[in-house]
Amino acid sequence: MKPTIRVRLTLLYGGVFFAAGLILLGLTYLTVRGVLEDTRDRTAGTGQYMANHAIQEADGTQWFVRVPTISQKAAQADYERNTVTGLLTQGAISLTLLGALAMGAGWLVSGRVLRPLYQVTETARRVANGTNLSERIAYTGAHHDVKELADTFDVMLSRLAAAFDVQKRFVANASHELRTPLTINRTLVDVALRRADASQDAQRLGESLLVVNTRHERLIDGLLALAESENPVLERRLPVDLAEIAGYVADQAVAEAGRKPVVLHHALAPAPSAGDPMLLERLAQNLVENAIRHNVADGEVWITTRRTGDDAELVVANTGPVVPAYDLEAIFEPFRRLRTDRVRSDRGSGLGLSIVRATARAHGGTVVAEPREEGGLTVTVRLPASHVDGRDGQRRVGRDVQG
Question: Could you list the residue range(s) of the whole structural domain that residue 257 is in?
Answer without folding.
Answer: 238-402
